[in-house]
Amino acid sequence: MADRNKTQGLTLSKALAAGAVAGLAGGLAEVVFMGGYSSITGINPSEILRLITFTFFDSTVAFGPDGLWAGLLIHFALSLAIGLSFGLFARYALKGPFSYSKALAWGSLALTAIWAFNFFVILPVYNAAFIELVSPGAAFFSKLSFGVVLALGVRFACSANDSPVFMEAASPTKSL
Q1: Cα–Cα distance for residue pair 43/93, rounded to 1 Å
Q2: Neighbouring residues of 28: CB distance < 8 A, sequence distance ≥ 6
Q3: Number of separate domains in the chain
Q4: Closest CA to 26 of 69, 70, 76
Q5: In a domain, 29, yes or no
Q6: Do the domain assignments include residue 174?
Q7: How many helical (H) and strand (E) elements, i.e. helices and strands, does the chain have?
Q8: Which residues face 6 on adjacent strands?
Q9: pLDDT higher for 7 or 120?
Q10: 134-169 pLDDT, tens per residue?
Q11: Structural domain contains residue 130
């Protein structure tokens, strides 16, 4: 029987599928976190979404009738890209044991790096209004929640070796 902590049985297509699902779930965790943050602080959550749009488009798009939905779409598109990247990372970069603690460490590290680059490099140049609206701490914990869900999702896929959705069946001709 294959070691459930190994990522070698994770095929490319299954790593991408696991990453995609985990990335979208991580994006949803971040939306839920920011929704809670908005309700506590009184910030209008649609303003956060419009400022996401403003990072990529001009004010006529961001603050127009579709700015809110564009922000949500951008957020989930980026979540998907992060998830796919993490799935590939789990497939190709991680060798040997891929425990839950290792998954959480890598997921947390990856999203902390994304938060730092976004909050201290990208946003000050392209969208200072976002960092004035959302505190660094809230942005950090929203990214951390994303990272935890992302890591656990991909790790779960690696442990589901009895599921044809994520893992290859062990070939009787291959030695384990």
Answers
A1: 40
A2: 79, 149
A3: 1
A4: 76
A5: yes
A6: no
A7: 8, 0
A8: 97
A9: 120
A10: 999 999 999 999 999 999 998 888 776 534 334 343
A11: yes
